[in-house]
Amino acid sequence: MNDVLYRKYRAATFAEIIGQEHVVSILKSAILNEKASHAYLFAGPRGTGKTSIARLLAKGVNCSNFKEKGDICNNCEECKLINNAEALDVIEMDAASNRGIEEIRNLKETINFLPVTLRKKIYILDEAHMLTKEAFNALLKTLEEPPSHVIFILATTEPNKIPLTVLSRVQRFDLTLASSIELVKKLAFIVQKEGFRSDPKALESIFKLSGGSFRDAESLLGKVMVNSTDKFIGEKEVASSLGLLETELLNNFIFSLLRGDYEGCMHNLAKITAASVNLSYFIEQLIKILKDLLVNAVNKSSTEFSVTSIIKLINAVFELKTEVKDFSDKEAIIQIFVIKYLHNNSVTTLEQNNTAQVKKTISARVISSTDVKTGPENDQVARFIAKCGEVSLRLKTALFDCIISLHEKVLLIKNPYKHTLAYLSKSEVLEIITKIARELFGDDLTLDLALLENINSKKSPEQREIEIEEVVTSKSEVKDDKILDNSELVESILLIS
Ligand SMILES: [Zn+2]
């Protein structure tokens, strides 16, 4: 993995740590007052700076100028030794590869020797949760009676796997993933230092992809920089380097889905499949855009879509996410997703569409197939279809699929396909239909669009409505930006070069 930037821009002083203010201030005051604990645990997701802070702590307690400067000086002999990885008294162990009791025994044998060059001997044990039970037991004895010249620092992504007996003997800090502001600030700093320019939106995209992990964000930025030809990091550069799609295209795709706009969907889909897209990230991007839309809809700030319709689409995307793993033809699976979604949801979209015009003219409802009595052979209906066909061939084709009946000044149009109904209920299409129908059958005519139920369906319309509600409520949980773990995804993107 491309960790060059991560290593290069690792914080060298406490002041350079972005975020984690509470941890930094407690550690700094402990060092200043010579009250550092004998054992620490840094817990948190990957890329939150656990080992970076552990190394700062190792430097801080040994730095000769800390009291004077209030931070690490990076200039004294002790700081220099640690920075050059030459300090014998800072011992870093990776429990992922040194899991056993042997290593802990070795550690116990050397622990009583006084530090060689530094004031404090520091043991940094990364991925501490990987230790075996026996190794933990051996470590526990050391933690019970540690020599005063020793500080243990355990780091872990899975604090729940650390035995309680160990947890009770360490001072624990939980490190959190970076916020958008913190991470973008760090990326902008690196971009500037490296002599690049950037569009904040591009950095925001990298933040979203990283899920708040500094390490992932910096690795992804590194990849975009390598591919940049003119030292500029824009949305296009991020998209092409990482196999992502531009937000505008994704927004259009989502809006066309929510509007039940079949043509729009297909148009955007063609663009999506033409780009060499990373499908996993495509889905992640969809979910994130939908999450933002949902939050806006819940807060009732500028969105034309209802909470229910957004949740339905989110559920469909979650299903797509699980299905996509099993298919190699990614293009086909997205096409199926679009058609399936429009087919299943267009009537609901129609019901929830806030367009006053649509509400006025349509009382969309799910009706049963037994309602079907009249066919399009009726002369008046045939004339109506022909007139519509003069305006639009697509409209004519759509109407041929319908069962249309005229009864007591109500023109009822039924169709088994929700995407056809969605098309017919688009305001501009509806306007044409209404105008022609009123010309032919009188000004007081009203239109009624309805879904023609599948003849084989044994479920009543009420049952179906209940089922839809259940699906929506059972899956309505939406993850927050900060708890999305994208590490697998990031790795997969970085592997594709
Ligand atoms: Zn120093």
Characteristic terms for this protein:
497 residues; alpha/beta; Rossmann fold; Helicase, Ruva Protein, domain 3; five-stranded parallel sheet; four-stranded mixed sheet; elongated; binds zinc ion
What does the model show?
This protein has a 5-stranded parallel sheet, covered by helices on one side. The chain has a 4-stranded mixed sheet with strand order 8-11-10-9. It is elongated. The chain folds into 4 domains: 4-174, Rossmann fold (3-Layer(aba) Sandwich), CATH 3.40.50; 180-242, Helicase, Ruva Protein, domain 3 (Orthogonal Bundle), CATH 1.10.8.60; 247-351, Zinc Finger, Delta Prime, domain 3 (Up-down Bundle), CATH 1.20.272; 359-452, DnaA, N-terminal domain (GMP Synthetase, Chain A, domain 3). With 497 residues, it is α/β, with parallel strands linked by helices. Helix 11 (214-227) runs parallel beside helix 24 (487-495). It has helices at residues 4-8, 21-32, 50-62, 66-69, 77-83, 101-110, 133-144, 164-167, 180-193, 200-210, 214-227, 235-242, 247-259, 262-274, 279-298, 307-324, 330-352, 356-361, 379-391, 393-400, 418-424, 427-441, 461-474, 487-495, and strands spanning 39-43, 90-94, 121-126, 150-156, 171-174, 197-198, 232-233, 366-367, 403-407, 410-415, 446-452. Residues 347-376, 455-459 and 464-484 have low confidence and may be disordered. Residues 63-65, 72-73, 75-76, 78-79 line the site of zinc ion. Zinc ion binds next to helix 5.
What would a concise description of this structure say?
Strand 2, helix 6 (101-110) and strand 3 form a beta-alpha-beta unit.
